[in-house]
Amino acid sequence: MSGSIIHRKRRKLKSEINVVPYIDVMLVLLIIFMVTAPLLTLSVDVKLPSSEARATQERTDPVIVIAYPDGSLGLQLPGDGRPRVIDATQMEGMLAPIREQQGNDFRVMVAAQGDAPYQNVLDAMDVLRRAKVSNVSLMTNAGGDAR
Length: 147
Prior knowledge:
5-stranded mixed beta sheet, Nucleotidyltransferase, domain 5, alpha/beta, 3 helices
């Protein structure tokens, strides 16, 4: 029997890519994303204010507080040509006598340079709150830069 030769059949090589595992992975990822997507949309509905008011026509010039990009504050009093750069404690000291003199008619407008961070505007408004100024408005300019 040593003379008998056993011939094995050779398999032909497949040149195809088996895509079944890729489809399985894709379907698993799809299910994971479908389950987690509704959980990621935690949001709060915000109703932004809108206004159709026109520019104010005041009898007197308001006091203008300016927030600069470097964090400093400027104060422009009525009749002054250019604003003065002062610190927060000086501003509180200068606004107190004006507030007492004008009473309820005392108005302050807060302006900011276009590249100033909003945090600087909030800091300026905090100084006004400490100075007990209650009538505060934000100053805007159609050109985009308040002052």
